[in-house]
Amino acid sequence: MKKTGICYLVGAGPGDPGLATVKCQQCIQKADVLVYDALSSPKLLDWAKSDCEMVFVGKRAKNHAMPQDEINALIVRETEAGKCVVRLKGGDPMIFGRGGEEAAELAEAGVSFEIVPGISSTIAGPAYAGIPVTHRDHCSQLTLFTGHEDPTKAETSIDYAHLAKTPGTRVFVMGVARIRSITESLIAGGESSDTPMSLTRWATTGRHRTIVGTVGTMADIVDKENFKSPAVAVIGDVVTEREKINWFESKSLFGKRIVVTRTREQAGALSVALDDLGADTVELPTIRTELPDDQIEFAAMVTDVHTYDWVIFTSPNGVKYFFDAFYATYADARSFGGARIAAIGPSTAAKLKEYRFTTDVMPDEHVAEGLVKAFTDESIENQTMLWVRPADARPIVSEGLSALGAIVDECISYKTVAETEDKTGAQEYIKENGADMITFTSASTVEHFFALGLEWPEGCVAASIGPVTTTALLAHGHAPAVEARKSDIPHLVEAIEEYYKNA
């Protein structure tokens, strides 16, 4: 039977990936083809399947990666081919997003489609700027309009004289390039030049920036500040509430552009923590993990896990690859046997907990040396130990535990290789915009970052998760400005926050 295709017109939200809906995530996860634009957070692309075809059709002012008629033809063609197509659009697809036009094309073609609403920047942008679009003390009416109409129109359909007399809050998007014409038209229509006005650029993201003035002064402020699109504008007395409730821009890392070099699968935890503090995080995975070269030996050692007294895990990746192999062989967790478990740190212990295994030993220092030291309090002479490790691990654990009398077998569960794909354009973004800080969570991320050949951004500093990573950075001539007190993500974030607090 011929596979039936479907197209989802999905709102990606205003920029903060945390504001994407659950259904948005579900649609991206099952997409065969993902058609996305420039206003969608690139972090959302990480939800896609490894074999998903991604097509960038972004539009920014006069620079269109793909004309609208070609986008329409693309989503119809791929849906007719029986694929699950996701058309990912910034904000809400039906609020100045041309979602209605695309839905009409799909309907005319007779293919299945669904519309998945998203949080619009017209509401979220002001909220992140500390501006409520409705407020009992100011207004109970909200009007939305666009500052950029179809360029083929002979004349504008927007009645600025009517808008000038409309009570309540007025919000518009896509109007930065025409800001002087818009404000002058409003004033000519009767709007007071003293009416408060704001513009928020890249709303809800780490690049978020707000300027405040009046209808009469805003065009000059835009010119002076070289303020560019994309931005959402608010006109009305509600703008004055920003003085009291401007919450987002007061975060400790607001405005700091911080690069995360972890693997694509692991970048999320560090990015989310930095995002929560207001940082503009740029995910630039420099490594990815793969199964080891000798997968037969790996599978055999996992199968024999029940014969060991101890199993040592030194990374969350090792835990994942081990238990993927374990449950491919065994259907019952009790097949693990009676081995006690050691984890190098809280991240590894947390990953073990996902598989319902608890940790018996975890060192105070979350490095190999600390793990060996923790076993000096245990009686391990002649104990059999299975060390689950990556291919490029230092021999510290094996040598140290063997010196304490243990019998150690090394189970190579994965290897790290260079991440060569740059799906989100992070490398170009860093080249164009620079960075304030680059974070490194392992010696591997250091080596593979410098292998990319990217020029170190001017004024940028490095942040290291611990001494081993610091040694790798020093070898490349970059002494880190930040080193975590303990080698884990929470302490790295804490050190970064403390650095900027004292800067």
CATH architecture of the largest domain: 2-Layer Sandwich
Strand order of the largest sheet: 3-2-6-1-7
CATH level 1 class label of the largest domain: Alpha Beta
Low-confidence stretches: none
Describe the 3D structure.
- The chain contains 18 helices and 22 strands.
- It has 503 residues and is an alpha/beta fold.
- It folds into 4 domains: 6-119, Tetrapyrrole methylase, N-terminal domain (Cobalt-precorrin-4 Transmethylase, domain 1, 3-Layer(aba) Sandwich); 123-249, 2-Layer Sandwich (Methyltransferase, Cobalt-precorrin-4 Transmethylase, Domain 2), CATH 3.30.950.10; 257-286 and 419-502, Rossmann fold (3-Layer(aba) Sandwich), CATH 3.40.50; 290-416, 3-Layer(aba) Sandwich (Rossmann fold), CATH 3.40.50.10090.
- Helix 10 (295-303) packs across helix 11 (316-329) and helix 16 packs parallel to helix 17 (467-475).
- The protein starts with 5 loop residues before the first strand and ends with a helix.
- The model has no long low-confidence stretch (mean pLDDT 91).
